[in-house]
Amino acid sequence: MPLMFVTMIVVGADGMAHFPKLYPYWGDTGAQIAAWFAEHRVAVGLEVAAAAAGLVLLIWLISGLTTYLETCGGRTVVTRMLTPAAVATSVSMQASNPVWLLNALAGTPGHPTVEAFAKYTYELSWMLYLSGQMYGALLLLATAFAFRRTRIFPGWAVWSTVGVGILCALGVFVMLDGKGSLAPGTLASVLPWALFSFWVIAVGIALLRLRPDLYIDNR
After folding, report:
1. Three-class DSSP category at 104
2. pTM (2 decimals)?
């Protein structure tokens, strides 16, 4: 997932010439959107591949984390939510990938460019992406509650999980900004998911350093 974010920056930064605009804005014309994708076809393909791998690994990590939390603190309503929330997050994000690729393929043999279609698919891909981010917020907040209940993760894990979860939830509202500094396509619109990606690394490392047997023996 961090690779996915790095690829996103490489794809969208375009030499940082249009910072903080990484991708076409939500309110750009179909012609502008189609032109951007025509210029970044290969990079978009790499981004989609990285995203697909990262989202599968997310389900794997959360499944393992759920097992760990249930071993240490018992099965609860919250722990039963974690894996379904991870699946919902992954599926919604994954669903945005084929739509994203449609724009990258536009203009190639057999895939004519239709400007109105380019704009529609671009907005649809962002809607799916932001829906996945909302599911991700639910996943994070439920995980924070489970961390708090079991008390086996360090304090930073609880508060960082809450903070990133809130940012992911609030980040959904960037769709209300058409062409401003918060619009889909800007740095602000991908920052919550970037922080989510780095949260995955941090929690994964913390998980490797913990020993549930010690916790069980001393409860």
Report:
1. helix
2. 0.83
The residue among 114 and 38 whose pLDDT is bigger is 38
Torsion 102-178-93-193 (CA) sign: positive
Q: How far apart are CA 196 and CA 1, in angstroms?
A: 9
Residues 6+ away with beta carbon under 8 Å from 191: 167, 171
| Mean pLDDT of the 170-187 span | 84
Quickly count helices (H) and strands (E) in the chain.
8, 0
The number of residues making up the chain comes to 219
Question: Per mean pLDDT, which of 86-90, 113-117, 181-185 is the most reliable?
Answer: 86-90
| Residue 186 phi, psi dihedral angles, 5° rounding | -95, 170
Q: 16 Cβ partners below 8 Å, 6+ apart? A: none
Over 80: is that where the pLDDT of 219 sits?
Answer: no
Q: How many Cβ atoms sit within 10 Å of the Cβ of residue 9?
A: 14
| 127: its two tokens | 């809607």
What does the block give as tokens for 107? 């203009």
Rounded CA separation 176/217 (Å): 51
> What are the structure tokens assigned to 47, written together?
């981004």
User: What average pLDDT does range 161-180 have in this prediction?
Assistant: 89
